[in-house]
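Office hours follow-up: a student asked to see two folded examples consecutively, so here they are.
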Amino acid sequence: MVLDGSLQVLTALYGVTGIVTVVSYGTQIRAVWRSSTGAADVSLFMWSLWSVGATIAVLYARFVTHDAGYLLMSLGNATGCFLVATLTAIKRAEAQGVRLLPIGLQHASLPCAHSEGATPAALARGLHRETRESGSNVPGGPRIPTDATISSVDVR
């Protein structure tokens, strides 16, 4: 029957495009992570709205259709949307001086050991430049008191 063949093709296309869509969230996540402008060019409102829609799709797949394939695609979409929205919110907060990530995860703009052309000297220059510019004794962080000044801090 022709209709059965068409439904199989449609099902296969749905699966392939779903996988490609979920994998493609990686490019947006990478762009947000590397943003040096607080992800100002990313619409937090839209990614939040898509996150809500994807969550509703997860619930619909689970409780209405009971379709495992649809549920997996919906979970992948929801995860991607929430990651982009959350990272965008974190980048916006950091751009305003609010530190939300641990120190080691904040500096996507610094050369990484696995990035092209990153040598130990380049890594050291990047960390030195960062600490010198911020006045901090911790890369990207606030000035942390040394042992000599800790005794004078009132911790009540």
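And the second, which I mentioned at the end of office hours:
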Amino acid sequence: MDPDPPIHSGLVYRICLPLVAKLCGLLKLGPTDRVLRVAPNLFLKFGPELRLNEAHAMQYVAEHTSLEVPRVVTAFCNKKGCRYILMTRFPGKQLYKVWPTLSVQERCAAMRQLRSMVEEYRSLTPPQPGRIGSATYTPMGSMSVGPFDNVEDLHRALRGGVNRSTGNDELDIVARQQSSRTYSVHFTHGDLAFYNILYHKGKLYIIDWERSGWLPDYWEYTNAWAAVRLAATITLPEVTEEFLTPYPLEFKMECLRLGLKYLA
């Protein structure tokens, strides 16, 4: 069972969506095998690895901010452990695909808009101050980690639950520096790379909220960079800090932890 409760999970949805997913999958009507376009304005995400916390995150953002996010039609886990989220679809293309075609003025306007959007959802007041978790304080994302009582517990989990030396001198030094700092907790998208931002006639839409939740203040910046490195889709060092506050020490820590090359 999923730790998050279902949303609008009527019997019709529970019967029809598995059949729709099977049919659309055979016809390859979607960007991936687990994300299907089932109608002109509807996307269906499904699979055993999916978590309903994405649906609850989108609902939370819709209810507490002015951001336009996909509207959740239904979200549920069936008896076989397969989860389904039916949501509305926005027009537009991924920002990294259209970026080269935009003028300087259009790029500047997009960055101002994106920074305003990020500042709005990051200014939300945590219902449980200091705690780490999904929007509803359940395990986060497909990794199903957390929730944690505080940032220190999150850091300990990221180190594999140990406090001793890792054997990597550089990593140990950065870890000690990180442990000496105090971090505030903010609502975070968790994967704010340009492939999760749609652009349509000058308007931006943020999608894919599956990794979102209440996380340390640096998390948005470090994970946006790490996602770009791992996906190898697009790197925009000249604009990233136009919409996200930089955390160079924490970024270095994340690169060392993931085995990525750190670029100062």
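Two things to take away from it. The longest helix spans residues 104-122. The mean pLDDT is 86.
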